Amino acid sequence: MNIYVLVKRTFDTEEKITVSNGKISEDGAEFIINPYDEYAIEEAIQVRDANDGEVTVITIGGEDAEKQLRTALAMGADKAVLIDTEDDLDEMDEFTSAKIIAEYLKDKEVDLILAGNVAIDGGSGQVGPRVAELLGINYVTTITNLEISGTSVKIIRDVEGDSETIETSLPLLVTAQQGLNEPRYPSLPGIMKAKKKPLEKLELDDLDLEEDDVEAKTQTIEIYLPPQKAAGRILEGDIANQVNELVNLLKNEAKVI
Amino acid sequence: MSKKVVVLGEAREGALRNVSFEAIAAAKKISGGGEVVGVLLGDAVQSLAEEMIHYGADRVVTVEHPHLKLYTSDAFSQAFMAVYEQEKPEAIVFGHTALGKDLSPKIASKLASGLISDVTAIEGEGDAAVFIRPIFSGKAFEKVKNKDGLLFITVRPNNIAPLEHDAGRTGEVAALSVDVTNLRTIISEVIRKSTEGVDLSEAKVVVAGGRGVKSAEGFEPLQELATLLGGAIGASRGACDADYCDYSLQIGQTGKVVTPDLYIAAGISGAIQHMAGMSNSKVIVAINKDSEANIFKVADYGIVGDLFEVIPMMIEEIKKIKTN
Description:
The complex is a heterodimer.
Chain A lengths: L1 E5 L2 E3 L7 E2 L2 E2 L6 E3 L1 H17 L2 E8 L4 H10 L3 E6 L9 H12 L6 E5 L10 H9 L2 E12 L2 E8 L2 E8 L2 E5 L11 H7 L4 E4 L15 E7 L8 E2 L4 H15 L4
Parallel strand pairs in A: 1-6, 1-8, 6-7, 7-13, 8-12, 9-12
Antiparallel strand pairs in A: 2-5, 3-4, 9-10, 10-11
Helix pairs in contact in A: 2-5, 3-4
Chain B lengths: L4 E4 L2 E2 L2 E2 L1 H14 L4 E7 L6 H6 L4 E6 L8 H15 L3 E5 L2 H13 L5 E4 L1 E3 L6 E6 L4 E7 L4 E5 L17 E3 L10 E6 L13 E5 L10 H9 L3 E4 L1 H5 L20 E5 L5 H7 L4 E6 L6 H4 L2 E4 L2 H17 L1
Parallel strand pairs in B: 1-4, 1-6, 4-5, 5-12, 6-11, 7-11, 14-15, 14-16, 16-17, 17-18
Antiparallel strand pairs in B: 2-3, 8-9, 9-10
Helix pairs in contact in B: 3-4, 5-9
């Protein structure tokens, strides 16, 4: 089975965000594999181990993203592809990313594509479904369980807390929701092996894409931090009085109950 | 230039969701005086059309088909594209709901358009409209504009105020017949787990528990408070990791991002990744034994104390004011 995983390098969730010169500052920040993509990688490895085949992880980014690809290889993926757009593109949006990934995948034999349901930075959750549509394959988002037998697929997906059981078939793209699995940590032998696994580097040229083909449809014109909240009120006195005061404040001052 | 804007309405348990009315308000702003056309897709949605008009839509197009009873991207995209072909709008607005998130990228890809997801505010009107959306789950914001061509946005529930309900407004309601075929997915079962029918992302009140809740049973008083306030229950990653509750309740940078009118954090310390998911709530109450807990930094009101003492007292106090 040919399995592809779409991954993104993102800021660690515990990072504070600062803005300098109109951009998110990356100084000293820790980067990780987008947490939802980790579920996708783990699931891909489990599906491969149960069905044979190969797991290829794909990312778009600069040279720095090689580290996250090596981590995915250390977890157990077989091959990695880094599509480096740093020299070619100043601006990208979800249209851009999806077009590039679909262009890479269009002549591959694809059985299953996995991705995170959303990246914790941009937060749009568009690229997976867009790629599926460009490839003309079906997709199911926010999945919490995946069972494959032959080309039949049974999925449980999370829909705002409810769960839906879905029957469909390969080829298919799915996006991972929390609860799908417990992503493994790379083992030491895994890390050693990962250094020798193939990591292909491509640029737009290699995909026969011109900059105009992938020009972003939207433009970010400003990035800013939310206003600092003024310090709140810590209530005082015995607990019963505090609760009484709180409920009064919520009713009469904040007017939310 | 004025724009014709199409808004997809969304029903839940037989009624339109609030986010649909908020989406109409967003569409009005984008339209710059142009026409706002509501769209309803389902197996029996005709009766909901007037409500969209009462909230500001100029007219409504409905597509009814047995295959549209439950959402699938195949069926809904076929129905929506038929409406698109008929109307040829200059802009599209969906709610940023499970359905909107799933369907909008497919439609945007079919139309080779941009898609500005999860919009929380709109500055300017008509062609000058600029869209504000959270990034890093609300740790920062960006202002985005559409370059040219079709404008397509999804709006986050609870952020854009709906227009005033006007039962006197009238408009045309027209049914469009669409042949929905070739579905690649079958939904064989739906299990409703959501509490009391109040969806976390749309709830006006969220009562969330953290590690301090100590067990699955510990969530019971929180649930009681949430029900009393007509709200939903949420949790921190710590509480989910410890198996006190389902991951579908997790609020944070991984998990759901919520912006209710009132967020009550009980036994939550306030890790950065949790705060990203709730710090834009309008009013935040923190209850924690540890006076140094980070959560107090974003709280409007804080009580340093044991949640198992405080929450039952709150329930009693609120019952009192409700009966008065």
